[in-house]
Amino acid sequence: MNSTKIKSNNVESKKVDSNKMKAIISTGYGGPEILQLQIVDKPIPKEDEVLIKIHAAAITRAGTMMRTGYPIIGRLYLGLTKPRNPIPGTSFSGVVEEIGKDVAGFDIGDKVFGESLETFGTHAEYVCIKEEGIITHMPENISFEEVGGVGDGPMTSWNFLQELTQLQAGQNILINGASGSLGTTAVQIAKHLGANVTGVCSTQNIELVKSLGADHVIDYKKEDFTQNGKTYDIIYDTVSKSSFSKCKKSLTEKGEYLSPVLGMKLLLQMISTSIFGKKKAKFSATGMLPIAKTKSFLKEIKKLYASGKLKTIIDKRYNLEDTAEAHSYIDTGRKKGNVVITLKS
Fold it and tell me: Per the CB 3.0–4.6 Å rule, which of 18, 21, 151, 198 could disulfide with 125?
């Protein structure tokens, strides 16, 4: 494991006053070393916002891509030369510490979880979220760590499988990267929707993927799913390690290839397949969807958690000051399930 540490300037040893907080600051685009632990102003909730003391937040592969600023097209949203939102992180779970005067649906002490997609800011001790934003109460049977990464795996995979492609019971779906944060939730959601699921992962993760409900598991080190002659209604390439071109012959007549990472090649394929041919290449930026739509995803995911039909796989846990080390670990490509930041109370 890369032992990169955040430059903290002795922040850990400093006593933080009540108007300040510890936060990770992204000073530009680059490697994990651009992340710094700093003391910054504690946010103040507006009239329609709640202030949340964060207990857990996720570090995701998408987050590491935002850190590097690649693909470049993403900088149109993130900021051209450096992040316009200096505190990274989108998913969170925690406790409501303060409410604005117009807030009616939350009380101080409520356990909540959700996403901060407009301003990010969850890799910190506190974050403010609008009451009408992507936030809901936690189910009683779930821990802070389990829902601290709701945005990357569960909500993105729900969007892709339920909204983007309308996965139907009885359809055959292949999930490439079935042991990652997107993949582990995709396997469970696909089974919930009644699909026949084939997961693709490495040798050491086969039993994990089977335990999540996959009907078949392919060890990519021993078999290339694009060359075995089998076809699928949907190929969800959660790790974007394949391509529509490679997967085309593995799709049924009206099959769909889904990828959560948009590059120029995929963009051109999306345009061309929307006009020509029956097989489609598709992408969706879950974080760019209307708040109301994304919040509806959160409500569905909450139901799955509450009913025990969805569980979170946690690979590693890190303290806030070790965020850069967590990024280095994700960069190795060996992550399974979620990597979680836990904040000391």
Answer: 21
Q: What is the pLDDT of residues 260-283, one digit of tens each?
A: 988 889 999 999 999 999 999 999
- Return the H-helix or E-strand segment holding 208: helix 206-211
Residues in CB range of 224: below 8 A, 6 or more apart:
none
Check residue 86 and report its DSSP letter. -
Which one-letter amino acid corresponds to residue 322? Answer: D
Cα 214–217–223 angle (5° rounding)? Answer: 160
Listed in order, strand segments (DSSP E) in 100-156 are: 111-115, 126-130, 134-137
Burial class of residue 271 in the structure, from the number of CB atoms within 10 Å of its CB (0-12 exposed, 13-18 middle, 19+ buried):
exposed
CATH 3.40.50.720 maps onto the chain at 152-287
How far apart are alpha carbons 74 and 262 in whole angstroms?
Answer: 9
User: Is the pTM value of this prediction over 0.70?
Assistant: yes
Looking up tokens 């949907």 gives: 234
Amino acid at position 219, single letter:
D
- Cα separations in angstroms, 284 against 165, 226, 289: 10, 23, 9
pLDDT in tens, 313-333: 999 999 999 999 999 999 988
Using CA atoms, how far apart are residues 164 and 87, in angstroms rounded to an integer?
A: 30
Q: Do 185 and 197 meet the contact criterion of CB atoms below 8 Å apart?
A: no
Judged on CB neighbours under 10 Å (0-12, 13-18, 19+), 147 is buried
How far apart are alpha carbons 342 and 75 in whole angstroms?
28
CATH architecture of the domain formed by 11-149+312-342:
Alpha-Beta Complex (3.90)
Ranges of CATH 3.90.180.10 domains, the chain = 11-149+312-342
**Quick check: bond before 43 cis, omega within 30?**
no
